[in-house]
Design goal:
18 helices, 485 residues, globular, mainly alpha, 5% strand, 4 strands, two-stranded antiparallel sheet, 69% helix, Amino acid/polyamine transporter I
Length: 485
């Protein structure tokens, strides 16, 4: 126990396995079971569905390898926020922290919590989104929202009890979902192969097309090639990049990792590599079981294909071919495990950024205090409250669509920061150096910038509001600065 006159300090209790589990667990939520439907509608061909996931994987691993250098240089709590502060200035770092708190971290936690509740509703119908408990005007509260909030509160409480408790939950749920996902992939590869789906996918392997839907019906199907195909791939990557995001969360907890100069870069590499491999194998499994193209009017699962799986639940559609009527329950359990473990990692890590911001005078002062369990209890509570508000508002889905562009922007700025710090802090200790520097990090910057520009052109309804959220942080920054002057 900590004596009354002694200030709590972070405890370095996260080993390599724990750190890797945070990377994997934070990345794998519900996206891998859903987003391939939208990707399939955007690119229209099995080859390009896999290519989207492959490019996403390459970009994610390159970014993780690049972040390894920064993690080795600055093995302190705050991670990406601290990297931006050191490479640029507190202003740029604050804009990242502001966006992280307002939408990126809390919005993701809210969305994942509601996904957990939705699939719980498959097992316990009372938790259905259709079960409205309170309503006034256009605002209503459903049983699913209440369960989502309850799950966030429970996980917040567990993590307030200490790092040890948080990492135990993380390790149990992450290892379980890895085993479950690999089991699903093996079943798809071994016993789930569908001859008609294989024939359709092989025959359509390179025939790219962009399917537009309106009011649940096909509005147009446009064959695409050349620059238009490249544009479609960029747009399709919104879903895959979101599903592969949150790998950087381990950097937020750097002050609690043992031998961080070694374990953080290694956990980033092992974690992102493992997840991307699982994601690609899962999509190969989908293509072995279901045709990519389909019709929203089809009654049979195979007729709807990956593109029009019911409610975009590709994982459930594929499982129904393998497991029959029990598929929905099996997938519901898998996704419940996946989302619960994912949120534990997000809740654990996010609070460390707000703690660091508070220490810099750029967040509520009380958030910069550790409780008697040596964790940022107030930061966890503030994160929990805002997340619950987002759960009730129902706006988290739109907000997440808005911030994909902002997430890419800050990733680009952070990787560019490696180049800046190589000059700015020439003699700094670098136990690990970015793989393939300067060419490999530069490839990431170019790819991410190209996708960002592509989204600005083809998804303006999402990207410009996302940029607006970041810009809103500018006056807030100066308000905070005024408070501490």
């Amino acid at each position: 126990m900590i004596s009354s006159g002694e200030q709590p300090e972070f405890k370095r209790e996260l080993g390599l396995l724990d750190s890797t589990m945070i990377v994997i667990g934070s990345m794998i939520g519900s996206g891998i079971f859903i987003v391939s439907a939208d990707i399939g509608r955007t690119v229209g061909a099995p080859a390009y569905l896999l290519l989207v996931w492959l490019i996403t994987g390459v970009m994610t691993v390159i970014a993780a390898l690049s972040y390894g250098e920064l993690a080795g240089m600055m093995p302190h709590v705050g991670g990406q926020y601290a990297y931006l502060r050191e490479a640029y200035n507190p202003f740029i770092a604050f804009l990242y922290g502001w966006t992280l708190f307002l939408v990126i971290q809390t919005g993701t936690i809210a969305a994942v919590a509601v996904a957990f509740a939705k699939f719980t509703g498959v097992l316990v119908p009372w938790f259905s989104e259709k079960n409205i408990l309170f309503s006034t005007g256009s605002f209503h509260i459903t049983a699913a929202q209440i369960l989502a909030i309850t799950s966030v509160v429970i996980l917040t409480y567990i993590n307030m009890r200490g790092l040890k408790e948080g990492k135990i939950v993380q390790n149990i749920f992450t290892s379980t979902k890895i085993i479950a996902l690999l089991g699903f992939v093996l079943l798809a590869l071994i016993i789930g192969q569908n001859a008609s789906a294989l024939t359709a996918n092989i025959g359509n392997f390179w025939n790219a097309s962009w399917t537009q839907i309106k009011n649940g019906k096909i509005f147009s199907i446009t064959p695409i090639s050349g620059w238009m195909l490249l544009s479609a791939i960029g747009v399709a990557m919104v879903g895959s990049l979101f599903s592969a995001d949150a790998w950087n969360n381990i950097t937020f907890t750097a002050g609690e990792v043992t031998n961080p100069k070694r374990n953080i870069p290694l956990s980033l590499t092992l974690g992102t590599g493992t997840v991307i491999l699982i994601y690609i194998l899962a999509n190969i499994g989908y293509l072995l079981v279901l045709p990519l193209t389909g019709s929203p009017d089809a009654v049979q699962t195979s007729g709807r294909g990956i593109q029009f799986a019911s409610s975009d639940r590709v994982g459930t559609a594929a499982a129904s071919v393998i497991f029959g009527e029990s598929a929905e329950v099996i997938m519901a359990i898998m996704i419940m495990i996946s989302t619960f473990g994912c949120n534990n990692g997000l809740i654990l890590a996010g609070a460390r950024v707000y703690y660091t911001m508070a220490k810099d005078g750029l967040f509520f002062k009380s958030a910069g205090i550790l409780n008697t369990r040596s964790v940022p209890g107030i930061a966890l509570i503030v994160q929990c409250i805002w997340t619950c508000i987002l759960c009730l508002s129902g706006t988290y889905g739109d907000l997440l669509d808005y911030v994909v562009f902002a997430v890419l922007l800050f990733y680009v700025l952070t990787v560019v920061g490696i180049f800046i710090l190589r000059k700015k802090r020439l003699n700094a200790e670098r136990p690990y150096k970015a793989f393939g520097y300067p060419i490999v990090p530069a490839i990431y910057i170019l790819l991410a910038a190209a996708i960002s520009i592509d989204l600005l052109i083809f998804k303006p309804q999402y990207t410009w509001p996302g940029l607006g959220i970041v810009v809103l942080g500018i006056p807030v920054y100066f308000v905070w600065k005024k408070r501490i002057v």
